[in-house]
Design a protein that fits this description.
Elongation Factor Tu (Ef-tu), domain 3, about 35% helix, Rossmann fold, alpha+beta, eight-stranded antiparallel β-sheet, six-stranded mixed β-sheet, single chain, 33 strands, 19 helices
Length: about 625
Amino acid sequence: MSSPHVILGTAGHVDHGKTALVKALTGIDTDTQPEEQARGVTIDVGFAYWKDHVTFIDVPGHERFIKNAVTGASSIDLALFVVAADDGVMPQTREHLAILQLLGIQHGVVALTKTDLVEPDWVELVTEELSELFADTFLSGAPILPVSSTTGDGVDDLRSTLEDEIGRVAVRADRGAFRLPVDRVFSVAGFGTVVTGTVLAGIVRPRDELVLQPRGQSVRVRGVQVHGQDRPEAGVGLRAAVNLSDLDAADVERGDTLALPGFFPSTYMLDASLSMLADIPAPLLHRDRVRLHLGPSEVLARVVLLDADVLGPDDNGYVQLRLESPAVAAHGDRFVIRRYSPAQTLGGGIILDPLPPKHRRRRPEVLSTLGDLDTDTAQIPLEVFLRSAGDEGRTAPELAHLLGEDVESVVRGLLRLVEAGQAASFADGGTSRFLHDRAWSRLCDATLQALATFHRTEPLKSGIGREPLRQQVAPRCPQPVYDAALEHLAETGRLRTQASLISLAEHEVELSAELESLRQSVGELLREGGAAPPDEEDLPDKVQAGPADVQAVIEVMQGRGELVRLADQLLFDAGVLQDLEKDLVSYLQDHGEIEVSTFRELAATTRKYAVPLLNHFDSRGVTQRDGSVRRLITVTE
């Protein structure tokens, strides 16, 4: 069984011997730029390979290149923390330690370099100083090994210790949906554009179709290399070089993300938990401008403090990062923020929601959701993201995109929620839409409350239409989901549907004696009119009543199913329509088809009424139009 791939990154102050130590361990000089070689200072991230399963990332130590240091440190599994014995603890020693802590690094080895330049007792003093510095950090109790890259003393011991620590590094969990943040891009003659980075999730293979975010450009993979060797695939945790076709190197930047299509869309807002460092000289204020370091990307952002007015040293809080340019992130990603000017590391944290809506501050429901997302329990983010969707619900692909996981694993998680009674599934246009149990309960309760309010304000109306009710209660709720809620409420005896109007099950319209008399008069007129009833606008004059009262009575009769409205202004007695339908069916059974003119004679009416009546019977599935005639398609009893 092959060993899991481990990325080992250096950290420490400038000129403390990080690059020389990597060369002593691997034989590879990571300072490849002419300027780096001329100045003897690492400027950008460098790379070296050790054995088949270890990649060294050498980061610059100078304060001017901290953003490059964050780029390198963002993907490491094990830190090789370097401190020169002749200098001891220096400013970037502390800053690099803070950055590693913020990025959640959990494993490390300390190399005390340049021991050939100092006396042994000085080495002991510096070792004690480092033990104090590392207390309460991930390096507490880590091996501190004296070494000299110049003489080679201690290099073998360091190599052996690193091998032991590498064996303790846990295998990275694969969340399924491929993602590779780009930290280098270059062109190779005859091959084209190559991007490199650490595979954070999923697998990349030649001929894969991917998307370069945040620009949304589709790309095709020509080839994949790991440690300079062609590979059929590269998986999670590997440093990979990906050759892309039909793409100019000038169109790719450090910080772009190579991703599976449909996943990891770009965003201008991120919800996050933020922890401030203990030694910041000034607090972070609401809407302060910062440099956000998210993997290899750096974007400017405003920090919206959601639960505080200010964050001081060692403070924690929930924030919304509002970005000045788009970025790509997933739930659980680590980040670092630095002050815009002067550049100075302030703190860092964890992305909780990579695609949030814009929040107002101090909203209890927002803070509660962020608190639920701020957890290590794998199932909770899925449940919280589903809950936060409210009555709109979410499909498995939508949730997979939010979580950066493959759809199959999300479906398994959703089915567990359904089995536990925490979610429900509904058919929606060929897919399944899931609704959190709390949202389902709120949807049903809100529907009943809306109906109760409607009945109080409109006591003479039998009910309200399905779509007006949905728009009032839950306009974002998909129609199939809302239909399921109405069906559930009807099956449990809490509402009823009659003549396309929805009402509470116990609702009954009670007419005054005057309006009841008016109802009888209107009904008599419509029955007498038969297939040629009076126009709706003429009814007030015919029954000698006000238009408002007549309209109220019409709506009651329509709700009770006593009359049917056709073509907006035509009202027919329900019994008359039933008799006309029977006559039409009988005629078609004998003759096979009927024209409008024949039906007009059969119903003793005019074309004004005949056409709407035939359209009505078509819509009921009684007849079917075929050119100028109708034919029977079903027989009603």
